[in-house]
Amino acid sequence: MLFELAHITKTFPTAQGRITSLDDVSLSVGEGQAVGLVGESGSGKTTLIRCALLLTQPDGGAVTFDGTSMLGATREQVRQFRRQVQLVFQDPFSSLNPRMTVEELVGEGLVIHGIENSAARRRDSVAEMLTVVGLRPDDMKRYPNSFSGGQRQRIAIARALAIRPRLLVCDEPVSALDVSVQAQVINLLREMQKALGLTILFVAHDLAVVRHLCAHVYVLNRGKIVESGSRDQVFDHPTHPYTQALLAAVPIPDPRRRPPRRQPAPAAS
Predict the structure, then answer these.
(1) How confident is the model at residue 180 (pLDDT cuts 50, 70, 90)?
(2) Structural domains in the chain plus CATH codes
(3) CA distances from 186 to 61, 233, 243 (A)
(4) How many Å apart are CA 27 and CA 204, to the nearest integer?
(5) DSSP calls for 168-196
(6) Paired sense of beta strands 34-38 and 216-221, if any
(7) In 3-state terms, what secondary structure has residue 87?
(8) Which residues does 183 contact at the CB level (< 8 Å), separation at least 6?
(9) pTM of the predicted protein model
(10) pLDDT value, residue 264
């Protein structure tokens, strides 16, 4: 198993005492899999991702990457972990530095991790990644504010993939985009997974989006995993009332119901 969270717990202090954000949460992601984590706002998704990426220390549990326990890991082990695990953020409008060109943004990780110190070869790597995500090499001289939301998210994905990570963590990566653009980004991730053998942990509140991408799904509610299983098990045969309620809330087009046809306005006499 490439990535595992085992019995993660996390509490936070409040004026009324400590509240539990995560309660004995376990999940695993196998090499080459696309795994979904679904839950409403406030379910604990963000806290879990922060614990998974070693940005927040859990109160208990274990984080394991490729057989190595990451809690209490050495500085070098953490550095290698951060190279092999990359994050795509929710908001493409705030996650890209507006003062940096696309070349600088996508190539930044190559510099930070000492992968490519030659500016010319780094430029070639950036051009290659832009092509992979459906943008033009000529775009590298432009700034983020000259791109649409969907294009910015493609840049963010290119930036994450530039250092060839083994695991891509996508934190609500399409929720800030229009529906038509969401489909484009999801299709791109599916193509990247097949072409690069990429492993993906996809976090979302939208079940329909997860269904199109992920073969295995975990459902998080109030800090607990209430259901997990294959895509077909969770979507076609849900057992937990919370999962059933989430599915019931997903709008399903009914071809029998059509909006009333608008009558043409009477011609002017």
Answers:
(1) confident
(2) 3-97+166-248 (3.40.50.300)
(3) 31, 21, 22
(4) 15
(5) EEEESTTTTS-HHHHHHHHHHHHHHHHHH
(6) parallel
(7) strand
(8) 212
(9) 0.85
(10) 45
